[in-house]
Design goal:
Number of domains: 1
Largest sheet: 7 strands, mixed
Shape: globular
Distance between the termini: 46 Å
Number of helices: 6
Number of strands: 7
Oligomer: single chain
Length: 234
């Protein structure tokens, strides 16, 4: 990807980012009057992510000509996730891991495959979304008593050329839902004047803005899931 220095649209982009960062600052002030991670206002209005995720997924599937899947956020997460399959084909690893879809035939025998997704986190605290490129790697033998390791590897943004066209179209759709797209790179640092609370004891380091508005884990934290082969008693 090229730099911004000589881009003719840089001033307009800077203006948009200024408005975005102002909206983020306003949300943090409203949601965290104690200015401490982990204790958002109990009366904080939800962003409606749990209701709109399925509707947004349906539109993205049509507009991006891609398979799209929803995963509700887990306990402690302030978001739901929408996965847009960009490299790979259904039935894919996200379906097998999160939706109970049986492993496809190509997983039989020794398995080594990789898929690429756009992962949208829809905040339940504010009408905001952040988008990341993630690769999902599947490894295993798939034999009797075996299974597969599914490894999700997020990146700190969207970089791969095959994903950029869909990413741009996805971002253009969000305003129709009154959802602000927040650039991950612009919220990857800690908010000034905020206290980390219990976050350092959970993950070490200092929480970023992302961890206040979307999910507690570091944005590029790798997750690994073991899937037992069908019929495996384990």
């Amino acid at each position: 990807m090229g730099g911004c220095t000589n881009c003719g649209s840089k001033s307009g982009c800077d203006h948009r980012k200024g408005e975005m960062l102002e909206a983020v600052e306003d949300a943090l002030a409203r949601l965290y009057p104690s200015r401490t991670w982990g204790v958002p206002r109990a009366s904080a209005p939800g962003g409606g992510a749990d209701i709109e995720a399925a509707t947004l997924a349906d539109e993205l599937a049509q507009e991006l000509d891609a398979a799209v899947f929803v995963r509700p956020g887990e306990a402690g997460e302030h978001c739901d996730y929408v996965y847009v399959l960009c490299v790979g084909r259904p039935p894919c690893a996200i379906q097998v891991r999160d939706q109970g879809v049986p492993p496809p035939r190509e997983w039989e025998g020794e398995t080594a495959l990789s898929e690429s997704y756009l992962r949208v986190a829809l905040s339940s605290l504010a009408r905001m979304a952040v988008v990341q490129e993630v690769s999902v790697e599947v490894r295993g033998d798939g034999g009797d008593g075996g299974g597969w390791t599914v490894r999700e590897v997020p990146r700190a943004g969207v970089y791969s050329a095959p994903l950029l066209r869909r990413f741009q179209r996805l971002v253009a759709i969000l305003p129709a839902y009154d959802i602000l797209h927040v650039d991950l790179g612009d919220i990857s640092g800690p908010p000034p004047g905020f206290e980390p609370g219990e976050w350092p004891s959970l993950f070490a380091g200092t929480p970023a803005v992302t961890n206040y508005l979307f999910y507690p884990q570091p944005a590029t934290m790798v997750t690994t899931t073991w899937l037992a082969a069908p019929g495996d008693a384990a």
